[in-house]
Amino acid sequence: MHTSARRYYTNLAYLTFWIITTLTPNSDLWWQRGIVYQVYPRSFMDSDGDGVGDLAGVRSRLDYLQELGVDALWLSPIYPSPMKDFGYDVADYTGVDPLFGTLADLDRLLEAAHARGLRVILDFVPNHTSDQHPWFLESRASRANPKRDWYIWRDAPNNWLSNFGGPAWTFDARTGQYYYHAFLPEQPDLNWRNPEVVEAMLGVLRFWLERGVDGFRVDVLWHLIKDEHFADNPANPDWREGMDPYHALIPVHSCDRPEVHDVVRRMRKLLDGYPERVLIGEIYLPLERLVQYYGVDPHGDLRGAHLPFNFQLLSAPWDAAHLAKLIAEYERLLPQGAWPNWVLGNHDRPRIASRVGPAQARVAAMLLLTLRGTPTLYYGDELGMRNVDIPPGEVQDPFERRVPGRGHGRDPVRTPMQWSAAPNAGFTSGKPWLRLSPDHRTTNVEVQDHDPRSMLALHKRLIALRRAEPALQTGAFESISTSSDVLAYLRGKTFLVALNLGSRPRRLPLPPNGTVVLSTQLDRTNERAGNILELRPDEGLIVRL
Ligand code: NOJ
Ligand code: MG
Question: How far apart are CA 521 and CA 458, in angstroms?
């Protein structure tokens, strides 16, 4: 070849390589390939017999998480706290509550997790502190206090409501003003319009990043900035007695303000200074608003949260048509290069096994672990743990206490992890802080480890398959027409996933030469599929094409 032609082709190849590597989103990061597992520390494993789970307890169960095959654990708050909202009322952002252990215990947990290739994500609670945080004690001391403006003080309240019921403003007689709290009165909101607050809180992130944590789940990220004029929220015409205060309506002036994206960008920029850290945002908003939190800038670069939590599955009606629609909608709305994610449960929402029933919970697990995007698994869901009825005298959750008997309580989904048939399910040698599920003698890790068809076995198989198959981690998602109870899709042209969401047998035409690699019932492997796929009631199948 003529030299100039060779140079031309070399340059072209180089240019093509450059274009591909810079424009193709890097879909190889651990938080894109991996699976996040949420640990509610109070309820995971108690090492010292006080009935409350702790960090040493979590460390003692890392082998379990490694065997399960997850990549990261997210710890709900472990900071010093009066525990009015079980740690979501932080009194010191850079410490560990003695109930959970010490900073040294956290370091040991980080080290032990990292040694196993597991990442650790902390819960960052920036919207509010505890009313016992030294900042708030100062702020409320006098109107002239330098930290007065670190919180939100007003002479008169507006109509904003607390997410836990009742007004969001509490009068403080000492200085004759009201302070704002989107949650409990013991959780005053910080004023993120004050640059000192921003600096102090970024300092908190830096503190943990330097210690080696791999990322943050940011509590109520969409709440950080409120309307600067404190305009009243519009009344909700659909509200009825007993509903959440903001049921079916976004309180447009008290959250999701445009300036919040500047704050998210600041956090992201800080994380970008460290290798491979992840920023996950807790955001309950409709999809069009949610995807704004990826923070697309005018150049099309993503400067916001890596993973604005996608909570669609938490409340979706459990039928094929609805699920297909919301998956399509989400995939359509994702900005260029944005990485998706999916959640089936968390410490605030009903357990999936209770919501859809035990048979469909297996189908849900297959859905979660075969969709395109990072899955977050809530502790105990891998066993099929269910909501547990808590008698009124044992209620712990402040939400339930403020709005009693209306099903707002979150205790039912926070009961201790069920490890074995030992007393207290092997969770504690003391009295558990919250009663165990009555099924703990039969539904637990030990029993399910010995049952090759258990829910735990299903999770291990699904996770192992996902880990082994790049197509399931990062392969394209393509929906296949969905009809009568069957939700079916392709992953990277390699796998077909077919989920029967109903209780009748269903059939699905199939391209030739498919092999069933996994059934939710764990009894069909390496079965030639033929031209028609037979789905039993409540069965999900993964077929290799
Ligand atoms: C969301 C958390 O998930 C929830 O548990 C908490 O009560 C509120 N934020 C307030 O921090
Ligand atoms: Mg303990």
Answer: 8
Nearest to 497 by CA among 372, 344, 354, 358: 372
∠463-468-473 over CA atoms, to 5°? 70
Predicted TM-score (pTM) of this structure? 0.94
For ligand 1, the distance from its centroid to the CA atom of residue 511, given in whole angstroms, is 47
CA 362 – CA 353 distance, rounded (Å): 8
Q: Which ligand is nearest to the CA of 416?
A: 2
**Residue 282 annotated to the active site:** yes
Cα 433 from Cα 394, distance rounded (Å): 9
Q: What is the DSSP letter of 212?
A: T
Distance, CA of 357 to CA of 351 (rounded, Å): 10
Per DSSP, the three-state class of 124 is: strand
Question: What does the alpha-carbon distance between residue 178 and residue 190 come to, in Å, rounded to a whole number?
Answer: 14
pLDDT tens sequence across 401-421: 777 766 668 999 999 999 999
Start-to-end Cα distance in the chain: 42
What backbone phi and psi angles, to 5 degrees, belong to 38? -90, 125
In the sheet that holds 215-218, the strands lie side by side as 307-308, 278-281, 215-218, 119-124, 72-75, 36-39, 374-378, 341-343
**Amino acid making up residue 319:** D
Is residue 152 within 8 A of residue 180, CB to CB? The reply is yes
Residue of minimum CA distance from atom 4 in ligand 1: 348
Q: Which amino acid is at 196?
A: E
Residue ranges of E strands in 329-458: 341-343, 374-378
Q: How far is the CA of 48 from the centre of ligand 2 (A)?
A: 5
Distances in Å between the Cα of 116 and the Cα atoms of 120, 142, 459 are 11, 50, 19
Any residues with CB less than 8 A from the CB of 298 and at least 6 apart, and which? none
Q: Which of 343, 383, 377, 376 is nearest to 362 (CA)?
A: 383
pLDDT tier at 11, thresholds 50, 70, 90: low
Q: What is the per-residue pLDDT across 485-507, written as a single tens digit (0 to 9) for each?
A: 999 999 999 999 999 999 999 99
Instruction: Give pLDDT, residue 86.
Output: 98
Tell me which ligand sits closest to the C-alpha of residue 42.
Answer: 2
Residue 21 confidence (pLDDT) above 90: no
> How far lies 340's CA from each of 137, 326, 394, 491, in Å?
41, 13, 39, 14
The answer to whether the CB of 58 falls within 8 A of the CB of 75 is yes
Write down the pLDDT at residue 18: 42
Query: Annotated catalytic, 199?
Result: no
Of 97, 282, 538, 539, which residue is the catalytic one?
Answer: 282
Q: Is the CB of 397 under 6 A from ligand 1?
A: no
